[in-house]
Each structure stands twice: as structure tokens, then as C-alpha cells.
Design brief:
Layout: E1 3-7, H1 13-23, E2 26-28, H2 38-45, E3 51-55, H3 58-65, E4 77-81, E5 87-92, H4 99-110, E6 113-114, H5 119-122, E7 126-129, H6 138-149, E8 157-163, H7 170-178, E9 183-186, H8 188-202, H9 207-216
Parallel strand pairs: 1-2, 1-3, 3-4, 5-6, 7-8, 8-9
Antiparallel strand pairs: 4-5
């Protein structure tokens, strides 16, 4: 797996460097090359990497990609992000290439909202809010999840959500890995804002309910 981050403006360097360092990705700054245009440079580099994060407007990304995609089974994964890290959008090879998973990973690192549009995920009716004590095992988390689902299958779950304080919780990460569930990490400020809604709707303002409501709010 070879990852890369492509920028179009120097203003995106802080975000680009953060993502490149965390993802062990190559960082491209095309303005440093006085020869070919940024688009020409990107077209030459496109097939050198299996996973791309393009920090640019989606319209620019579409023009950069024009004529490059061949097959969802062989094309690199492409995720588009805006410079303010508001959204991470899988644009190409969401399932087969791993762009959906990359979008969630980039979102966890940057605080962006993962905007996954593939139908398989879009039609799933449930968001699973999870809060747990430090050190809880994947097995204990699964037991609690099964109880909460009350007979509904895990295949009905679009994504799991938790507070940023639990972003590195080993048991939670392992549970999500076992069931191929994307994990959306919600900033504690957004969790606090959603807690009132969760309390009014469910009578519970805990992390599990609040993160589920914060995630569904998008």
C-alpha cells in the first residue's frame, strides 16, 4: 500500500503535513516544480500510489481525474478533502480500492466529517454510539452491542461512533476491525452539544447516545 497527499495551495500545508505524517504518505507540493502544471504532474503520478488524498475543491479533483479512471477493481482510492478539514469524501474506488476506509481514517485524524455516498452504506439504518471504560475488551464491547441491538443484525449498522477521548481504545478498535465497521470519532464539544438532544429523546445523555446523535446529525 502506497499513500499520497496532493495539495494545490500552500495554505493547505499544515493539514497536508499532518495527514502525510500520520498515514506514512508522500506529500506532493506541485507549485515547487516550475515546469509542468499541477494537473500534468498529478496525471504522471496517479498510478504510482494506491491511495490518494486530494486537498482541493471537488470540482478541481474531477478535472484532475478526467480520463484517468479505468476500473473500480484497479483504480487507486481517491478521497477529496477541503483545506479546512470539514469533509472527507471518497470519490473513487470506495469499496474495492478502500477509499471509504481512507476517508474515515482521514476524518479521525483531522476532525472532518466522512461523507460516504456509496449505496451499501447510505441505506443502512443504524448508527452505533459506543462509550466504554478504559481497557474494555472487544468481547465485552460486542456483548453490550448485541444486547443493545436487541436482535437487529450488525449488518444494519452503517458506522460506529465514539468520543475523541476513545479514539485509541484498543478493544473498541478491535471490535470495529472484526466486523468491518467504520469508526467515526466525534469531538467532545460536538458530543456535549448532542447530549441535550439525546437526553430529551432517550432520557440518556451518556457517550453512547450522544455520539450516535452527533453522528446521525450529518
Amino acid at each position: 500500500m502506497s499513500r499520497a497527499v496532493w495539495l494545490v495551495r500552500a495554505e493547505a500545508l499544515p493539514l497536508g503535513r499532518k495527514l502525510a505524517a500520520a498515514l506514512d504518505a508522500q506529500l506532493y507540493q506541485p507549485w515547487l516544480d516550475d515546469g509542468a502544471s499541477g494537473r500534468e504532474q498529478f496525471r504522471a503520478a496517479f498510478h504510482l500510489h494506491s491511495h490518494w488524498i486530494l486537498i482541493m475543491a471537488s470540482g478541481i479533483a474531477v478535472r484532475y481525474l478526467d480520463g484517468l479512471p479505468q476500473s473500480k477493481y484497479s483504480d487507486p482510492a481517491v478521497v477529496v478533502m477541503d483545506e479546512a478539514a470539514r469533509f472527507a469524501i471518497p470519490l473513487l474506488s470506495g469499496h474495492e480500492g478502500g477509499a471509504n476506509a481512507l476517508a474515515y481514517e482521514a476524518a479521525r485524524l483531522s476532525g472532518a466529517v466522512p461523507a460516504v455516498t456509496t449505496a451499501t452504506e447510505a441505506v443502512k439504518p443504524l448508527t452505533l454510539g459506543i462509550g466504554c471504560r478504559r481497557g474494555k475488551s472487544a468481547e465485552a464491547i460486542e456483548q453490550a452491542v448485541r444486547q443493545a441491538l436487541a436482535g437487529r443484525p450488525l449488518s444494519d449498522v452503517r458506522e460506529a461512533a465514539t468520543i475523541d477521548l476513545k479514539a485509541d481504545e484498543a478493544g473498541l478498535l478491535e471490535f470495529c476491525r472484526r466486523h468491518a465497521l467504520p469508526l467515526r470519532v466525534i469531538a467532545r464539544e460536538d458530543v456535549a452539544a448532542a447530549a441535550g438532544l439525546a437526553r430529551r429523546r432517550t432520557g440518556c445523555g451518556r457517550t453512547s447516545a450522544s455520539t450516535a446523535y452527533a453522528s446521525r446529525a450529518r
